[in-house]
Design a protein that fits this description.
124 residues, mainly beta, 7-stranded mixed β-sheet, 11 strands, 48% strand
Length: 124
Amino acid sequence: VQLQACGGGLVQAGGSLRLSCEASGRDFRSWSMSWFRQAPGKQREFVAGIHRSGGKSYEESVKGRFTISRASARNTVDLQMNNLKPEDTAVYYCATSSSIILSSMRYDSMWAYWGQGTQVTVSS
């Protein structure tokens, strides 16, 4: 299983970025996928997840600004990030798992496979 994330970059506060993560090595149509982030000196935290059932979950601070979605092929998960803030600066990681319940998506220990991360920097 491999996850390849891309789309990070440098953007001014209030701007937008779209992250994309492509999974390969399995048929991921029935797998759940998520995004986490880790800022310097901080623990990795949940950002958003989309369960294999289609249910979605967001971290409170990104609700209304970020949207997680899957491409029709379901091997790709995107994270549309609008109205970015300096506190969104972090390395963003995608993750996937075949067996996770929706209420547990925010716990990083529950995810089986991880991508390499993509840097998002928001300047003030």
